[in-house]
Amino acid sequence: PQFICCSATITNPGEHAERLVGLPFEVVDNDGSPHGGKDFVFWNPPVMDKAKSVRRSANSEATNLFTELVSRDIRTLTFARTRRLTELIYIYSRRRLAEVSPGRSKQIKPYRAGYLPQERRQIEQEFFGGQLLGVVATNALELGIDVGDLEATVLAGYPGSIASTWQQAGRSGRSQGESLSFLIALDNPLDQYFMRHPDFFFQKSFENALVNPTNPYILRAHLLCAAWECPLNNDDEEIFGSALTRERE
User: Sign of the C-alpha dihedral, residues 129, 131, 133, 137?
Assistant: First the structure.
C-alpha cells in the first residue's frame, strides 16, 4: 500500500510517520498554500482588582470581541476551552447582538462534540456557505473540517500547545486576504507569561508528535479492530511486533 500523511503543525513529520506506519517516508515541507498577511493580537484582559491582581474574565473579553467582529460583518470563529464555555459565550453573544445588531443574532451558532452528526454537518455547511457570520466552538473545529474563508479567529485562553494555537489561529486567513487572530489570556501564570513575553511564543517551534506503537493499552484496542476485519495469525507479528504474541496470550 501507499501512504500519504499530512500535517502542518508538527516538528518531526518524517520520524512520526515512520514510527506510525513502519515504512520509510519522504518529507515534502514546501508550503504552497495561499495565505495573506495576519495580525496576531495578544489580548490581556484589564485588571479589575489591583489589590488582588484579578483580571476580567477571558470569556467576557471573547464575547465582546466576537460580537464586535460579527456586528461588522467579519466572519469569525471563536474557540472556547470547554463545551460549557462554548455554550455560555454563544448565549451571551447572541443576547448582545440582539441589542446592538438584531439581524445578526441569528447568524451565529455554537459547535461542539455532543451534537448529533447531522446537526454538526448542517452548522459546517452553513458556516462554509456564508449563511453564518460566526461560530463559537471547542477544539472540535480546530482541524480536519473545511470551514471556508474566515477573516478572524478568537482564542479564549492559550489552547495548551504551540501547535494547537497555530492550528486554531490558522483557521482564518486561508485566502490571499488579510486576517486577524486574537489570543486572549486567562488569568494564570502561563498565559500571563506569554502576554509579558510574546517573543518567546513566536520563537517557539511546534512540539514533536509522539507515538508508541507498542503501548499495550493502545495496542490492545488496535488488535481488536484488526481482528474484527480479519482473523489474526502469527504472520501478523511482522506488523504488530512481538507485543502481538503477548497480547494474544
Answer: negative
Distance in angstroms (rounded) separating the CA atoms of residues 79 and 138 = 5
What's the burial of 207, exposed, middle or buried (CB within 10 Å: 0-12/13-18/19+)?
A: middle
pTM: 0.80
For residues 15-49, one letter each, b for 16 or more C-beta atoms within 10 angstroms of the residue's C-beta and e for the rest, the string is bbbeeeeeeebeeeeeeeeeeeebebebbbbeeee
User: pLDDT tens, 148-196?
Assistant: 678 999 999 999 999 899 999 988 887 777 899 999 999 999 999 999 9
Domain 38-203 is of which CATH architecture? 3-Layer(aba) Sandwich (3.40)
- The rounded distance, in Å, linking the Cα atoms of 78 and 137 is 6
Q: Is 50 exposed, middle or buried (0-12, 13-18, 19+ CB in 10 A)?
A: exposed
Q: What pLDDT, in 10s, does the model give residues 10-43?
A: 888 999 999 888 889 999 887 776 677 889 999 9
Give the distance, in angstroms, between the CA of residue 60 and the centroid of all CA atoms in the same chain: 20
The whole-angstrom separation of Cα 123 and Cα 131 is 9
Measured distance CA(120)–CA(75) in Å, rounded:
18
- Residue spans of the domains in the chain: they are 1-32, 38-203, 212-248
Whole-number Cα distances in Å, 76 to 16, 108, 114, 206: 33, 9, 22, 25
Nearest-angstrom CA–CA distance, 59 and 80: 8
